[in-house]
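Hey, sorry to bother you again with one of my protein questions. There's a protein on my desk that I can't quite get my head around. No rush at all, and the record is pasted right below.
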Amino acid sequence: MRASLLVVAGCAALVSAWMPIHKNLFNAPGALNFQNSTANSTANSTTNSWPRGRSSRRWLPATNKIKGVNLGSMFILEPWMAEDEWNTMGCSGTNSEFDCVMRLGQEAANSAFQAHWARWITQADIQQMQSYGLNTIRIPLGYWIREDIVYSDSEHFPQGGLQYLEQVVGWASDAGFYIILDLHGAPGAQFASTPGFYVDYQYERAYKFLEWMTNIIHTNNAYRNVGMLEVVNEPVQNPSTVATMLQDYYPTAWSRIRAAEAALNVGSNNLLHIQMMNQDWGSGSPSQYLSDQYFAAYDDHRYIKWAYPPVAENPAAYLSTSCNDDRGGNTPTIVGEWSLSVADDVQWSAEFDPTANVAWYKQWWAAQVMAYEKQEGWIFWSWKTELGDYRWGYKDAVAAGVIPTDPGQAYNLGACNGI
């Protein structure tokens, strides 16, 4: 989410790192969490970013798409979606983690944030996600979770988050989830009124974060189902502004991740997928300067309320847009963020009121799922909020009867019939 970046501006054996259609996902007892089928053996070219398997493995069916949720406000807390939590922590009246830490002081802030990390996402949440037929979680992270690259004299962030990240990915791995880790808050902030990320010394801090995280993923068993690392979330949507990101940051991030894996003797079939925002995001072609795209992956964020060109603000236009949507541009693409929220100026109008229009929102949810599964799948923003508005919270939307406990039912609702 952009909001999080705006506020930021103020063991073991090596693990397999396949997408769900590639990777054996094991729960704690060792049983496969999803129904797999034996894939035909196919040759993998070094330029093929989407290998389809080897006969010695069991694979998920190719039709089994990414179906997931973001753990929003876990490690980058966004006050707009968790106001009560923010206030409980003593952060009321501040706009960001940076500001809250400055107000509370480092020691008190550490205690407040550690209490938040312990309660915001629990093992019961992971189990509930599993019961809802989801297979993937995406975890937004700030670079400051690696504490030794924070400028201690000028940057103020909570400390101690890594042990809680290990706990969450361990629960998710035990439950058989595929896990994506996302550099959501980059050094200097990548999406802000005056972004500071797009300079060499900030890139260097990001490379250090990515190398460090790569090493943890491949050496800590709790991270065994982490198969993808996103190198930066939502950069500025202007290719000229982010030219050095395309020319320098993406290729160097790629090479530094791969070098870290080579130092650990990670085999070619166990490499992480390296993810970048896809071309449809508007920051240019992420693969333009890459010499290697083996195990590349791409992210797209599709919030219809902020679409450009704008979508007409009526239910028929929203539904039609989603029924006809195609978020390609690069392959493979996952729609890594989306929601059921509509334009702010009409969100409480009679035709969009969430209480009175549950049936319509269910249709729109189904239309978006079918659109994003034209690609490799989807990850809803977010699992939970404190908004009292199911349009931003998957958990609340299931409780409201908008989202079925089996997301595969999207294809049985007739959402796009006649459109």
The radius of gyration is 20 Å. The first strand starts at residue 37 and ends at 38.
